[in-house]
Specification:
CATH superfamily: Aldolase class I
Shape: globular
Strand content: 15-25%
CATH class: Alpha Beta
Order of helices and strands: EHEHEHEHEEHEHEEEH
Number of strands: 10
CATH topology: TIM Barrel
Number of helices: 7
Structural class: alpha/beta
Helix content: 25-40%
Radius of gyration: 16 Å
Largest sheet: 8 strands, parallel, barrel
Strand order of the largest sheet: 1-2-3-4-5-6-7-8
Number of domains: 1
Amino acid sequence: MLAKVCGLTNRADAEFAAEAGADLLGFVSHPPSPRHCPAPREAAGSWADRSVLVMVSDNPEGLARAADASGFRRIQPHAGPEARGRVTRYLRERGFWVLLPWADTPGQEDGAPDCHLWEPGPALTGLPGGSGRTNPLQHPPPGPFLLAGGLHPDNLRERLGALAPLLRPRLHGFDAASRLESRPGLKNPDLVLRFIETIRSMEKEAPHAL
């Protein structure tokens, strides 16, 4: 079960999350975001192999160039509805691991990524991407997914319990960002550690439920 800590902006937070056992480290390259990381390569340090570049773009060539510049091989592309399939195919053909956001809304193109990120839709949040809002869990992605949307150490078990049993085999992990912070862009080490430890504990308690 993957634990993804997203919205990292500095090396100290990235190193702490990685050393605490985070499987994936998310770095947002989107200046309007309070979690924008202006230098992902430097922030990731020696953990580029676990790092995911998070960008809002319909330009697959630009996404690939940005990931190459950061030294990352994992991309979370927030592309528009008409571009998501084209973007995903381009990136995967070039060897990138793609975590494709799947808003909790109907009628989306799958895009066939490596994994989906099931998150609340912009109709609820008003934003592309993370918002800290709880995922209504009404429109699941068609393939494997990480669950996102207002996650923190104290609601992971409740959120797992809210998933329909038929969906649980497709759950590959959890993604959290704003609920693990002391303030926007700065992680709270205790919350990060408890988030990761809770996921590991859930695996041991009920391995067949995950």
